[in-house]
Write a structure and sequence with these properties.
271 residues; alpha+beta; 11-stranded antiparallel sheet; 5 helices; 32% strand
Length: 271
Amino acid sequence: MDDPEVLPMMNQLEDRPTLMDSHPITRALAPVPTSGHIFDVTRRLGTVDMDEHQYLRVDGIARHLQDAGVDHLIHCDALESHPHWICRRTVIDVLRPVTWPSQLRIRRWCSGISPRWCTMRVRIDSDTGGLIETEGFWIHMNKDTMAPSRVADEFFDLMCTTTDDHRLRWRQWLDTPLPATPGTRFPLRRTDTDHFQHITNTAYWHAVHEFTADTPELTRSPHRFVLEYNKPIRYGEPLDIHTARTNDAITLWFAVDGDTRAIAQLRPATF
């Protein structure tokens, strides 16, 4: 479920807001549905995912989301028929930090769908009182044509049981141009690559953690991470991280030779 390509056609499907719309980056995620298909599992928090304060790191959260996605497909008997997905955006709301040691309850369900893509919500609760809410925008891919592919009718119908939004459209949240200030080189490792020879979803979050870990004023209270993947990054490419800080947010650009491949932002969760 890593990101082989992000397609320019998605930008053509962007749902432009009206003047009365509030920006979705400031809205709370949809609550847990009272009925329908919800994948529900329990996992132990491992020490490999905790930071120096024994909190679950954001890249550790991303790993749990990745594993839960694969396990959910297996649970639905859909892994063989729907093996290839790319992630266009991930939202992570750390409302109460998860501390080690903990047992995690992870629930995953669909919050919006169209025939070729969907948003999947994941809620992580810990037995120590932690709460993390997330949502990913996932595109179902045909590996041979590298184009969005329709999901099977039975899969579509199952995902529809937890959402009334059956005409999901893409809307870019982070589109600020790359700043002119110099970036910081961020080395890539072979262990960061997938079978498409692209950097895995989780590896982006290593950089997000590295460049936001020293902003306690933004993370000591509920906060939101957003990461949008625009184009893949390949192992061996010279990746620079550019940052810009305002009073209430820090934004990161992942750029290769001045070409923005992804944008991330950390901001307070004010909803």
